[in-house]
Amino acid sequence: MTPAELLEMNGRTTMPLVLLGEHDFDGRYDHVAIDNVQAAHDATSHLVSLGRTRIAAIGAQPDEEYSTPQQRTAGFESALADAGLAPVSIEAAAHYRRADGYQAARALLERDPRPDAIFCYSDLLAMGALRAVFDAGLRVPEDVAIIGIDDIEEGRYSRPHSAPSRSTRPSSPPAPSPASRPASTTRMPRPCSSWRRTPSSPARARSAADGRSLRRFRDAALRGAPQPARHAHPSGG
After folding, report:
1. How far is C-alpha 168 from the chain's CA centre?
2. Crossing angle of the two packed helices 67-82 and 36-49, in degrees rounded to 10
3. Other Cβ atoms closer than 10 A to 233
4. Which CATH architecture has domain 36-165?
5. How far is CA 134 from the centre of its chain?
């Protein structure tokens, strides 16, 4: 959705609006997104902490208005600058698919010297890069370390698996205590109108009927009206 489309929709509705995704907007709307700059910075800093110095990246899209690639490029370059390093290369990727990661990694591995680490802008790109390193007869992470962003489930089952950046998606938090649990999560009892109690035996049915007769007898006595006759049940029932 473009800013122009948002303005048009905002003029036609008073419904509260919350935006999800990675586009940049002008701040007039509530917007939920990850910090792409910090995520890329953390992922690249992790590679630096492993002692890698020839670090490349895959995923740039300089011609796109979509802000995610630009933000992740900024985080990548910032982390390298903090470490006193320069990027080996920032390879473009038309799409964030395995094939794009594979092709870009093949090009990087033909360099001399080749990179000793690759930061991928998504896990799917990283999985394509993994295959390219394998096809080149190299090892991950011994020869080339690879890291991606997203932490998708598929990446956890690749062999070897790519190291995901989780800086913006922490692991599941501990369950809140009853005192801190939001009221909206409290399990409410089922309304009484949704169920009906049915006597489970003739004896219980008679007991319920006796109770109703006693109440009628009592009410009639209080009003001074003639008392209705009461019928006793045979013994042993």
Report:
1. 10
2. 40
3. 12
4. 3-Layer(aba) Sandwich (3.40)
5. 31
Instruction: Collect all residues with Cβ–Cβ distance below 8 Å to 26 and sequence separation of at least 6.
Output: 3
Rounded mean pLDDT, 88-93 = 96
Check: CB of residue 54 under 8 Å from CB of residue 114. Answer: yes
Inter-axis angle of helices 98-109 and 123-135, to 10 degrees? 50
Give counts: helices (H), strands (E), the chain: 7, 7
Assess whether pLDDT exceeds 80 at residue 68. Answer: yes
User: Considering only CA atoms, which of 235, 173, 226 is closest in space to residue 203?
Assistant: 235
> Sign of dihedral through CA atoms 202, 203, 204, 210?
positive
Q: How far apart are CA 162 and CA 59, in angstroms?
A: 16
Backbone angles phi, psi at 216, to 5 degrees: -65, -40
| Rounded-to-integer distance, Cα 72 and Cα 78, Å | 10
Mean pLDDT comparison of 24-38, 92-106, 181-195, highest-scoring range: 92-106
Q: How many CB atoms lie within 10 A of CB 126?
A: 31
Residues 101 and 132 sit within 8 Å (Cβ to Cβ): yes
| Domain assignments of the chain as residue spans, ordered by start | 36-165
